[in-house]
Amino acid sequence: MSTPVPRSSGTGRGLLVAAIPYLWLVAFFLAPFVIVLRIALSDAATDQPPYAPHFPGISQLGEFLVALDFENFRLLGDDPLYWQSYLSSLRIAALTTLIALAIGYPLAYAMALAPKRWQGILLVLVILPFWTSFLIRVYAWIGILRPDGLLDMALMGIGLTTEPLRLLNTDAAVLIGMVYSYLPFMVLPLFSTLQKLDGTLLEAASDLGATPLTTFLTVTLPLSIPGILAGSALVFIPAIGEFVIPDLLGGSDTLMVGKVLWNEFFSNRDWPLASAVAIVLLVVLVLPLMLLQRARGQGEASVR
Fold it and tell me: Using CB atoms within 10 A as the burial measure, which of 135, 155, 266, 267 is most buried?
């Protein structure tokens, strides 16, 4: 005969389980955000740490609020370097997402239609690049894209070009590197969604006289919207703050907020201004995330 579990014990475990996500958010999002915000509202200094806080403690909260100023945030709007870096990052991240979707969707669709015994092998091939260092993979693209590199040698060898393309240190090189690096993040959620499609719906569309293109546009594509949104979010969010790829493959004209953050933190040692840049970047990301979440909810509701 089983021993009955006290109800209060079960309720306590339930509250603990429900509280874990909130504790996680407080520990790894809210607390760091408050620290960064505090630094953003400080003044730059030459001592250690390299900022002079205006908010030493709770006891001086009133004085802090009276003297509160947003000097670092105002500078972001006054200096074109910063708002242009946000716009450039948004443009490159959006292009990366669209190109990854254009390449990743047919790839994921083909994987979903492949025989079951091949799908595991295809999945391994997609994630195989993750088995090597991200930095080494980006460095490899330098050898491919540099003048007279592997790409130029191949294109000139087959007669498509007669002179080097000089892609390295351009925005095109950054896009190539970012699409290559983030493509698996688009393929995996798309494959997961497409693999779960109800085949009877496709057969019903075919029985009703729909062409393959009509079936894809009216059945497959709408049902795969959750995967498209999930993959787009997984690509867009890290791409907008990317630093390594623009620094290695982009030139001095490639302006992205990740490079600006690095320069402010480690070259200029202006932690308050760098923190303000990070806070605004987070705010910039909130709107597309809310739109994606809303579209995802609508997509899932339409599927049901």
Answer: 155
CA distances from 12 to 3, 8, 66, 113 (A): 18, 6, 43, 47
277 with 257: CB under 8 angstroms? Answer: yes
Rg of the chain (C-alpha set): 25
| Packed helices 225-240 and 80-113: angle between N→C axes, nearest 10 degrees | 140
257-267 average pLDDT score: 88
Structure confidence by residue, pLDDT tens digits, 159-173 = 888 888 888 888 899
The CA distance from 215 to 199, in Å, is: 11
Asked if 68 and 297 count as a contact pair (C-beta separation under 8 A), the reply is no
The tokens of 154 are what?
Answer: 């191949």
CA distance linking residue 281 with residue 49, whole number of Å: 23
pTM for this predicted structure: 0.83
Q: Contact, 262 vs 243, CB < 8 A? A: yes
Please give the helix or strand (H or E) that residue 266 lies within, else none: none
- DSSP 8-state assignment for residue 224: T
Q: How confident is the prediction for the chain on average, in pLDDT? A: 85
Average pLDDT over residues 79-91: 91
Q: SS3 of 52, please?
A: strand
**The two structure tokens encoding residue 65:** 């609020």
Query: Which of the residue ranges 35-44, 128-137, 160-169, 183-192 has the most confident prediction, judged by mean pLDDT?
Result: 183-192
According to DSSP, residue 129 is labeled G
Rounded Cα distance between 15 and 192, Å, is 32
End-to-end CA distance of the chain: 42
Give CA–CA dist 212/195, Å, rounded: 17
State which amino acid sits at residue 251: G
| Three-state DSSP state, 54 | coil
